[in-house]
């Protein structure tokens, strides 16, 4: 059975306590016996003293009046009895014979008391008889003197009696009684001595009684003496016995105390020696463990000194060393696996640790060197150093640019507080160069979006200006005879208006506000048309090569916009090489992009059609390469560019979920790579069936636009087509007219942007009055309306300004025919 440390300590101290307690009990028992012995001896001595006093008192009885001594004698006897009883109660350990003799002490004391009282009474009687005899002697002398001739005789007789009495009392011998009888005869001879004889006889009788009493007194005295001697004999025997036993017990007790004291002292030394050795072994083990931890020599397996708590504590220390090693390995693994360069610096700015990423960044393990020297190549502390703040136990962050690495880092410094109160700092270098570039691109995108929104607003106003020009020119062309000078002039006005309209479309394309239908197309066909067109316009001294993958899969795109992308890129390439008759190379291939293959790109992994346009021009200056996609940014001379070409390309590709990358080396040409996602083979091109519609009609149309010139122009267009047109320049007035008679109109044509009530708001209110009324919205630009959401509030058609008469005629006729489910009138 394994004892715990607490049980061992408890057992140790219990043993010491038991030994000490046993020693104390033994000593107490011995001392108690010795004390009882002393008390018993004292009681016996008091008993003997009391007996001795009784013996001495008996001598005084013969020389004084004993009548008053009976009660004091009895009290003394009672005291002796009490001492005797006390002796009996304290005689443990003596033999039975002695105890039996002691047991008779009270009885002997009773005998002693009886004999003593009787002796006192006889002594008192003896004294009384002596006094009576003295009186009788006097009477007898007086009687003798009265006898004739008896004076002399009487004196002699008195002397003889007195001598006889002295012999009787002093010798206590009755052998002289015959002489007393002779004296009686002599008295008879005196004659008339009857009274004297009678006195003498009485005197002689008293002497005989007195003698008998004397014998009894002697007998009682002898009994009392022997009884007292017996008391002394018995008590002396007991004293001798208990003294011998006590002496032996005292010696044994002394030896036992000495032995047990020595044993206790020895056991204490042994126990404390074992305890000291036991705990010293544990302390030494713990010192080894602490030293191993200080020296970093862990994990370790210290031997278990025992199977108790100390052994468990040693095992716990071993387990703790493994946990510490595991924690340190985990920490080092984490630090080593960090892609961000990190190091730990001491309060003296000495590098204590560098992770592999930091070693790679610095080019060596600079542990032990000054941080500012090893990492930044400085001779003094860095100007942005956060060391003082870290020493105040405050974490800190800072962005710096490292000229040595050419990167921007976000430095995160954290305090590492040691047990001694010193503070090291842990520094993590987070490379945020990529984030900075992304922030710049985001800012660029936001700037382009803002410019796009501005361009959309400008396009709306510009479309309103172009609409009357283009519309009126179209009407004049119908009115004027072909070939006339006026017809040619109006035709030039019409062409200029159309070119302005195309410019507006470019602006809307750039701002992603245009409404364009995407269909599956083959880029090969578009590139073939573009190459044919550009070859005819670019001088023959400029070499154009092409490498077109004929089986490149289709992409989902708007053909005109992709045509514009290719034209813009090839035109830019021509402008780059026209001065030194360089070369333009156009390539189309299918490629696959993996995750992370294109840095700073939003493209998802997958298959893409890659259109590359390269030139051998001077390249692009690195200082401006980040600005080439900005609207209206150009390095071309005046008249050769508007600054919208690449901006439009960027906007088109963004709308097509594609991307464009530029690679240029100053002095060695430029390459633009355009990526367009390839559609799955299962997808088929949407076939839009066009059916001929009649352009004319006779229906009633409600026309609404806040611009008077536009209302007048649109009314002329519609009336030439045969329609009956009612116009309003206020959407509120148009609503009231419609509310008065909703069935008066077959179609509503409304502008989108109008004060107080916009076109979509008007459409909702009109359809609330008459749900089946067909509505066409005309707009130059609006974020609130497109082809997908116009049907949500009853709009059946959408016309983009500036509106061409033929487009309006086709849209009006198509909407009316769908509404009536009929054909041409």
Automatic annotation (TrEMBL):
Quickly give the catalysed reaction.
ATP + protein L-histidine = ADP + protein N-phospho-L-histidine
Per the record, its GO cellular-component terms are: membrane
Membrane-spanning regions, if any? 252-274
Q: Which EC number(s) does the record attach to this protein?
A: 2.7.13.3
Q: What is this protein called?
A: histidine kinase
Q: Where in the cell is it found?
A: Membrane
Q: Where is the Response regulatory domain?
A: 700-816
Positions carrying 4-aspartylphosphate: 751
**Alphabetical UniProt keywords:** Kinase, Membrane, Phosphoprotein, Transferase, Transmembrane, Transmembrane helix
Q: Which organism is it from?
A: Desulfosarcina ovata subsp. sediminis
UniProt xrefs under SMART domains: HATPase_c, HisKA, REC
Query: What region holds the HAMP domain?
Result: 277-329
**Any Pfam family matching the protein:** Response_reg
What would you give as a GO molecular function for this chain, any one?
A: phosphorelay sensor kinase activity
Q: In what residue span(s) does the Histidine kinase domain sit? A: 457-680
């Amino acid at each position: 059975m394994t004892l715990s440390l607490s049980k061992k300590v408890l057992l140790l101290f219990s043993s010491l306590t038991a030994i000490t307690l046993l020693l104390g009990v033994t000593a107490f028992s011995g001392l108690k016996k010795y004390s009882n012995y002393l008390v018993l001896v004292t009681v016996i001595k008091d008993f003997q003293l009391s007996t001795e006093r009784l013996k001495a008192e008996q001598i005084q009885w013969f020389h004084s009046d004993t009548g008053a001594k009976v009660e004091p004698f009895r009290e003394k006897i009672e005291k002796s009895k009490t001492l005797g009883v006390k002796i009996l109660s304290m005689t443990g350990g003596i033999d039975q014979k002695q105890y039996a003799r002691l047991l008779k002490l009270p009885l002997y004391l009773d005998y002693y008391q009886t004999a003593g009282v009787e002796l006192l009474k006889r002594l008192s009687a003896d004294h009384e008889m002596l006094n009576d005899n003295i009186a009788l002697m006097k009477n007898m002398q007086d009687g003798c003197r009265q006898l004739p001739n008896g004076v002399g005789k009487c004196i002699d007789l008195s002397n003889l009696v007195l001598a006889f009495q002295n012999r009787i009392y002093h010798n206590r011998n009755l052998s002289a009684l015959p002489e007393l009888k002779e004296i009686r005869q002599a008295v008879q001879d005196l004659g008339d001595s009857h009274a004297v004889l009678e006195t003498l006889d009485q005197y002689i009788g008293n002497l005989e009684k007195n003698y008998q009493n004397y014998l009894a007194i002697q007998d009682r005295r002898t009994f009392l003496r022997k009884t007292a001697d017996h008391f002394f004999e018995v008590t002396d025997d007991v004293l001798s016995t208990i003294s011998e036993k006590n002496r032996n017990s005292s010696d044994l007790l002394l030896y036992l105390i000495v032995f047990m004291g020595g044993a206790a002292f020895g056991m204490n030394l042994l126990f404390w020696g074992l305890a000291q050795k036991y705990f010293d072994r544990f302390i030494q083990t713990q010192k080894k463990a602490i030293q191993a931890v200080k020296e970093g020599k862990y994990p370790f397996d210290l031997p278990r000194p025992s199977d108790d708590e100390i052994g468990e504590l040693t095992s716990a220390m071993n387990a703790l060393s493994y946990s510490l090693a595991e924690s340190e390995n985990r920490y080092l693994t984490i630090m080593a696996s960090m892609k961000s360069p990190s190091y730990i610096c001491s309060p003296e700015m000495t590098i204590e640790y560098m992770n592999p990423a930091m070693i790679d960044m610095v080019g060596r393990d600079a542990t032990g060197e000054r941080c500012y020297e090893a990492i930044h190549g400085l001779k003094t502390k860095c100007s942005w150093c956060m060391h003082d703040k870290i020493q105040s136990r405050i974490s800190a962050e800072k962005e710096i640019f490292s000229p040595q690495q050419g990167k921007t880092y976000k430095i995160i410094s954290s305090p590492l507080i040691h047990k001694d109160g010193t503070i090291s700092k842990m520094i993590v270098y987070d490379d945020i160069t990529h984030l900075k570039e992304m922030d710049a691109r985001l800012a660029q995108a936001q700037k382009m979006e803002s410019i796009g929104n501005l361009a959309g607003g400008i396009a709306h106003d510009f479309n309103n200006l172009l609409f009357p020009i283009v519309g009126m020119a179209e009407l004049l062309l119908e009115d004027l005879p072909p070939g006339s000078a006026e017809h040619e002039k109006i035709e030039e006005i019409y062409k200029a208006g159309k070119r302005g309209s195309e410019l507006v479309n470019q602006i809307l394309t750039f701002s992603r506000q245009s409404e364009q239908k995407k269909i599956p197309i083959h880029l090969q066909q578009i590139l073939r048309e573009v190459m044919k067109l550009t070859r005819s316009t670019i001088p023959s001294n400029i070499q154009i090569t092409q490498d077109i993958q004929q089986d490149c899969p289709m992409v989902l795109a708007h053909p005109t916009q992709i045509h514009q992308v290719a034209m813009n890129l090839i035109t830019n390439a021509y402008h780059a090489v026209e001065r030194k008759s360089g070369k333009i190379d156009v390539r189309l291939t299918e490629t696959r992009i993996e995750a992370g293959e294109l840095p700073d790109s939003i493209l998802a992994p997958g298959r893409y059609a890659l259109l590359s346009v390269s030139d051998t021009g001077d390249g692009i200056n690195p200082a401006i390469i980040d600005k080439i996609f900005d609207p209206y940014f150009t390095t071309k001379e005046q008249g050769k560019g508007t600054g919208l070409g690449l901006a439009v390309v960027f906007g088109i590709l963004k709308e097509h979920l594609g991307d464009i990358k530029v690679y240029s080396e100053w002095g060695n040409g430029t390459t633009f790579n355009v990526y367009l996602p390839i559609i799955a083979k299962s997808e088929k091109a949407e076939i839009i069936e066009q059916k001929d519609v009649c352009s004319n009609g006779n229906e009633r149309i409600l026309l609404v636009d806040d611009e008077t010139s536009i209302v007048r122009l649109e009314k002329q267009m519609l009336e030439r087509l045969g329609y009956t047109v009612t116009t309003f320049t206020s959407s509120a007035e148009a609503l009231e007219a419609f509310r008065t008679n909703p069935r008066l109109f077959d179609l509503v044509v409304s502008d989108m942007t109008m004060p107080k009530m916009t076109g979509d708001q008007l459409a909702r209110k009109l359809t609330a009055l008459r749900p089946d009324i067909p509505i066409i919205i005309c707009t130059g630009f609006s974020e609130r309306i497109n082809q997908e959401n116009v049907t949500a509030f009853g709009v059946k058609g959408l016309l983009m300004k500036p509106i061409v008469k033929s487009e309006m005629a086709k849209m009006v006729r198509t909407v009316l025919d769908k509404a009536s489910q009929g054909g041409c009138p």
